[in-house]
Design brief:
Number of domains: 2
CATH superfamily of the largest domain: MutM-like, N-terminal
Helix content: 25-40%
Strand order of the largest sheet: 1-6-7-5
CATH topology of the largest domain: N-terminal domain of MutM-like DNA repair proteins
Number of strands: 10
Strand content: 15-25%
Structural class: alpha+beta
Number of helices: 7
Length: 274
Amino acid sequence: MPELPEVETIRRDLAPELTGRTILRTRIAKPDIVLNMSPRSLSRRLRGRRFDAVDRRGKYLLLRLDDGRVLQVQLRMTGRFAIGDREPDEAEFRHIAARFELDDARTLFYDDVRRLGGFQLLEAEEWAGVEAGLGPEPLEPSFTAARLGQRLRGRRAPIKNALLNQGRVAGVGNIYASEALHRARIDPRRPAGDMDAAEVGRLHRAIRRVLRGAIASAGTTFRDYRAVNGRSGRFQNVLRVYGKEDEACGRCGTAIVRVVQAGRSSFFCPGCQS
DNA sequence: CTTGTACCCTGACCGC
DNA sequence: TGCGGTCAGGGTACAA
């Protein structure tokens, strides 16, 4: 799925379009994308509701409704949105799973090839419970190097795995974990709790730089990710290790290697990441 | 508590 | 052209 920068890009695309709009009708084409109730029940509860705000927390997109409930969206690997007054380009959006008809004669379309993503309509307290399990938001001022160090203290798991754990830090996924570790010159296999303060400091900086840079580039389109209405990101042009197995490290020239950690690919430079 | 594995689902790609 | 294996920006339910 989209990681934090991709979800943030989608949030910025959707916020001005949805805020203040009312949902006239919801049509669910693929029932398994509604995660905590029946599609009928979701449609019934959304009818007549207005979007008050479009927020993000970690990789969750939060469509806040005027009845205080939150329509929580997880895009996982292949979730996408389009909005318009007609069906989106069929070549790009061929697995439309949900349609939300709005009061301005347009429709919000949700497309998801693999259907790993989906929607949950939550009461405010239910969302608060989910949110309580998430780690700090890495671009907030409250996310300091000391806070990161405290979140990693005592962890024996490899640092790469710890970064993917949303309860440690929210929003970092497989691409940006590898990219941040390369910029911080830290081996992804290092036990998370073993790093000294200087290393944690470098990692903290690197996480923020990478995520900010990726937002400024409207995300990374490595494969499936698209912003609203099919726009690609540009951060793939400046990746340093992700997907670059056997290519020369831009910093030291050593060949980038790929290893598997927790079932996911990690890319790093054995020459300058220790 | 931790850590690893299986699984959800479809499609693209590679070697045979 | 087909077939099987592998892999994919994610996360959860289990078992050990």
